[in-house]
Design goal:
Elements lengths: L11 E2 L17 E5 H15 L2 H9 L3 H22 L9 E2 L12 E2 L6 E7 L2 E7 L3 E7 L3 H8 L4 H8 L6 H19 L25 E5 L6 E8 L17
Parallel strand pairs: 1-2
Antiparallel strand pairs: 2-6, 3-4, 5-6, 7-9, 8-9
Helix pairs in contact: 1-3, 2-3, 4-6
Length: 252
């Protein structure tokens, strides 16, 4: 089961061939980390065969090679893992956009029709974080920014979070900002609103030892590489599942 709010959940790094193993047991977190550079041989071998046309066009539109590589790594990893959870070839995973909970238009979070598995993907720098669950889930990963970015963007957080950040020494402020921002984005992705919901509405807190409780949700920090912060938010109706079906993955 998902632990109490603020609990640290450790992701499993997705490596070449790792998706071919049966999914983890339901008691383990459905969190996966993809390092784009290490995963690039898999991308080179499988991207053309597992990604759909929209994903390929989106990748091609990214002008910075590093951004393009991270996007491809994340989406190849997503399709390989969804294929494993659903027991279908990765290219046959039927992805769609859910209705936006704010306006009802079809630009909400990505989903599989019927929601047999909920998932979330976030990327930053050369890292991607993915989560899978039987209930709505969101993840976010953030590179620790420069001080001026932390101060400027941090002003849009909840007033109590703004006050907490303002009381910190400058040397530690960017990392704390990244931590609270990751928590907030993970929660908003879980809700399905994304940044359409104001960052100032919900108090999650900046403390390193736990996230403020949000009714109906469990939110926790995720340990990733130095220089990054990450978090996962899962609806309390069920666990972050390590398995969604009893079927093992099939090779693409």
């Amino acid at each position: 089961m998902m632990a109490d709010a603020g609990a640290v959940r450790r992701p499993v790094e997705l490596r070449d061939g790792g998706w071919e193993q049966p999914p983890a047991s339901a008691g383990e977190p459905g969190l996966w980390l993809v390092r784009a550079e290490a995963f690039s041989p898999v991308v080179a071998r499988l991207a053309d065969s597992v990604l759909d046309g929209a994903e390929k066009r989106r990748a091609a539109a990214l002008r910075v090679a590093g951004d393009r590589g991270t996007y491809l790594a994340g989406h190849v990893g997503l399709r390989l893992l969804l294929g494993a959870y659903l027991g279908v070839p990765p290219v046959d995973v039927p992805l769609r956009r859910s209705p936006c909970p704010l306006c009802g238009q079809p630009h909400g979070r990505p989903a599989v029709p019927g929601n047999p598995v909920h998932f979330s993907l976030s990327r930053s720098g050369g890292l991607c974080l993915l989560a899978f669950a039987r209930v709505p889930v969101g993840v976010d990963i953030e590179a620790v920014p420069a001080l001026d970015v932390a101060e400027e963007v941090g002003a849009c957080l909840h007033p109590r979070e703004v006050a907490e950040l303002s009381g910190l020494r400058e040397v530690g402020k960017p990392a704390v900002f990244a931590r609270v921002w990751a928590r907030k984005e993970a929660y908003l992705k879980g809700l399905g609103t994304g940044l359409g919901r104001s960052m100032s509405l919900d108090y999650l807190g900046t403390a390193p030892d736990g996230v403020a409780k949000v009714p109906g949700w469990t939110i926790g920090d995720v340990p990733v590489d130095d220089g990054y912060a990450a978090a996962v938010a899962v609806q309390d109706a069920g666990p972050v599942a390590g398995t969604v079906s009893g079927r093992s993955a099939s090779s693409p």
